[in-house]
Amino acid sequence: MPGALSGIRVIDLTHVLAGPTTTMILADLGAEVIHVEPPTGDDAREYGPFLQKVDKNHSGYFISLNRNKKSLVLNLKSPKGKEILRELLKVSDVLVENYRPGTMRSLGFDWPDIQKINPGLIYASISGFGHEALPEYARLPSYDVITQAYSGLMSLTGPENGPPCRVGSSIGDIVAGHQAAIGILAALHHRTLTGRGQWFDGSMVEGLFSTLENAVIRYTSSGEIPKALGTAHPTITPFQAFRALDSWIVVAVGNDKMWVCFCKTLGRGDLIDDRRFRTNPLRTKNREALARILGEELVKKTSKEWMTILEKDGIPCSPVNDIKQICEDPQINYRDMLVDVEQSDVGKVKIAGSPYRLSETPGTVRSGAPVLGEHTEEVLTSILKISHAEILSLREEGVIN
């Protein structure tokens, strides 16, 4: 079954995580993604966990982000390598890269150059602070932990009155990758109407800043500087994790009607008329006192017992799953969010599936990640019509491998 983006060709100059997340989304949705790698390969090929042996073809990290893609090895320091890239851009729809700003210009492929090569091309760049930035910021290197810290997210994460904490996944890269995919899809629609390509200038810091929800408006409207609250919500109470007898559970009581029901379920009807807890603003104001009371009640039963009781009465709740539990969860498996992919020289590997469940053209995992340079000859012969003799010459010159 063809995907929603069938017929769209993406030239992927990305590496590690932010950019590869973008191109993974596009590939899952059916685009032809040609991952252009340097002769040494994408850095992510050297990141663990490694499957079977420490080998660039067996990085579980790389496999999980580069399924459904093709690998073309191209030496962009070579004039002939640049010429091949230029010819590929002429017959492609999208270019994605997450180099440090200035790199594409030094290679001869900044936005004005790209517009001359292919006026209809969508160009997406992802960097820490954006290409169009203050001079002292534009070229700053940026990793996920830098982005989480700079954006303000880290100040909101972690235990109350404790040290700042990094979110457990590389959310700065991942959010930037998703936002770039959205920008590309919007630009493709605009191109359908006008015939013109666009440049998406993505910033990892801006990506996270845009997700800070009510923290920004709380500061701009009142001057309050939000702080970390552990698992608690700043304006809804109770809306946090509590320790049960054996593990942790989360309870989310979103309104006053639900609060009354929750109190009755706990056998604590006395809390309903307690002046401190009658309304959500009052419960939020007196969160610490309420959390102590609820903690004393919820620790009396196991998480499974509480799930049964709370779910029966319609109280939103959840166990705090570890990775083993969520990977073995029946709902995750029913929705095909953990899939087997056939990986060269490794066999079947389980990776996260695609969450894009369109009714006719859903995102799918169709193939494993490519071996370094696996599709070099295929791409050059089928798309650019380069002869086998010329390919041999390019290989001998170190332009490809």
Number of helices: 18
Shape: elongated
CATH superfamily of the largest domain: Crotonobetainyl-coa:carnitine coa-transferase, domain 1
* Class inferred from helices and paired strands: alpha/beta
Q: What count of structural domains?
A: 2
CATH class of the largest domain: Alpha Beta
- Oligomeric state of the chains present here: single chain
What's the CATH topology name of the largest domain? Rossmann fold
The chain-level mean pLDDT equals: 96
Order of neighbouring strands in the sheet with most strands: 3-2-1-4-5-6
Largest sheet, in brief, is: 6 strands, parallel
* DSSP strand tally: 11
Descriptive notes:
With 401 residues, the chain is an alpha/beta fold. The protein has 2 domains: 9-210 and 332-396, Rossmann fold, CATH 3.40.50.10540; 239-243 and 248-319, 2-Layer Sandwich (formyl-coa transferase, domain 3). The chain is 39% helix and 14% strand. The strands form 3 sheets. The chain has a 6-stranded parallel sheet with strand order 3-2-1-4-5-6, sandwiched between helices. Strand 2 (32-37), helix 2 and strand 3 form a beta-alpha-beta unit. The two termini are 32 Å apart.
List the helices and strands and how they pair.
Blueprint: E1 9-12, H1 18-28, E2 32-37, H2 60-65, E3 69-73, H3 79-90, E4 94-97, H4 103-107, H5 111-117, E5 122-127, H6 135-138, H7 144-151, H8 171-194, E6 199-203, H9 204-209, H10 214-222, E7 239-243, E8 248-252, H11 256-266, H12 280-285, H13 287-298, H14 303-312, E9 317-319, H15 323-327, H16 330-334, E10 338-343, E11 347-352, H17 376-382, H18 388-396
Parallel strand pairs: 1-2, 1-4, 2-3, 4-5, 5-6
Antiparallel strand pairs: 7-8, 8-9, 10-11
